[in-house]
Amino acid sequence: MGNPKAFLEIHRQEAGYRPIHDRIHDFGEVEQTLNTRERKLQASRCMDCGVPFCHWACPLGNKAPEWNDALFKGDWELAYNLLNSTNPFPEFTGRICPALCEKACVLNRFNHEPTTNRENEASITEAAFREGYIQPRTDIPRNGKKVAVIGAGPAGLAAANSLNRMGYLVTVFEKNEAAGGLLRYGIPNFKLNKAIIDRRLRLLETEGIEFKYNTEFTDISSFSDFDAVVIATGTPTARDLKVPGRELKGVYFALELLSQQNRVLAGMEFSKGERITAKGKDVLVIGGGDTGSDCIGTAHRQGCKSVTQIEIMPRPVEGPEDPQNPWPNWPRTLKTTSSHEEGCTRRWNINTLEFIGEKGQLTGVKVQEIDWEPNPEGGRPLMVEKGKPEIIKAEMVLLAMGFLKPEHPQYPENVFVCGDAANGASLVVRALASGIKTAEKVNEYLKK
Hints:
By secondary structure, the chain is an alpha/beta fold. It has helices at 6-9, 20-23, 36-44, 53-57, 64-72, 76-84, 90-96, 100-103, 106-111, 117-131, 154-166, 182-185, 194-206, 254-265, 290-302, 338-341, 420-423, 428-447, and strands at residues 146-150, 169-173, 210-212, 228-231, 251-253, 282-286, 306-311, 345-348, 350-358, 361-373, 382-385, 390-393, 396-399, 415-417. The strands form three sheets. A five-stranded parallel beta sheet has the order 3-2-1-4-14, covered by helices on one side. Strands 5-13-6-7-8 form a five-stranded parallel beta sheet. Strands 9, 10, 11 and 12 form a four-stranded antiparallel beta sheet that branches. Helix 7 packs antiparallel against helix 10 (117-131) and helix 11 (154-166) packs parallel to helix 18 (428-447). The longest helix is centred in the C-terminal third of the chain and has 20 residues, at 428-447. The protein is globular, with a radius of gyration of 23 Å. The model has no long low-confidence stretch (mean pLDDT 96).
């Protein structure tokens, strides 16, 4: 390492976010960046660990110590090559990954100031694009075999990229009008500008991958012309909340709001009756995860009156450590996002009983505060009511309670399932890792 004592002399410094009064009026990315000198200093904090737990924690096996060292020494091209050797799309994970590697960092155990791996990753990749280190490969020798990839989300794109580099003729089929999956239609622009996706897609197309859009997957037999098929259709079915009043106007799935807003920003037009907007409304978000957080930030930018977020599970522990899930594992602690900072009432142990409305329009939600008690028979704790039901005023409800794991029929042996379609809803970084691993399985199968 270039400076083996840097972690003792330099504190962790994050780039931070744009000021709230500025960012809530647009959908530009909220995260800022450090200058080159400060970024190199942050990279210098990466220790010469005996066991790099960051490498262990990352689903992609990113070699953070190696590319952090190259970054500190000013060799940005080497840093990108090391990063790209395990991560096909670091410009995505550098913006939206929860950074499992940072929670597993030895410095996180030492003083709760882990190396800023995610921000370093984004900076390295942007420098690589800016300096022209990233160029399309147009000399890939072809083996004559064809592979279809169904779904252009992160898993599908990773599988297509790997298979294409192996020499296969890859065609990606996507049901939407553009590629990206939840990267494009689920994650708001204030976290991931869609120009970042388009930039990478241009490279993939130049390298020979063919994309076919507005193509719905119905029958696997329609892909009989291909030597192998990869199914990467994600988890399209959101978890619903079947309580009285669910049919009222104003109750939406989170992705109905998020995907439409992203399409509006891309230039698509919707009629007044079709438009889903939080402008001037009291908004209730049901679900305490990242999707719920994205709804909060979107509602603010649409001009909502207020936002409340409720979660049926207990409030997570505060502080950097989770006694139930100790280092180097991911701590299940209270997470406050940039969207939460913009204004939100957050409540836990709240169960939804009924949606209330007048003349078909939502006006409020009846909820019940609860407690969780140990189950004497073991297994899931028992939910018990606490106090009396109350009504939360709301003209819009956004259901952000996760997604159902898809069920698949028995496919022929040349069909492979990857990403969320195989494992259920998870992180983008896990989807990328699954796509790469599945491409290797396809290659092994077709070589036999």
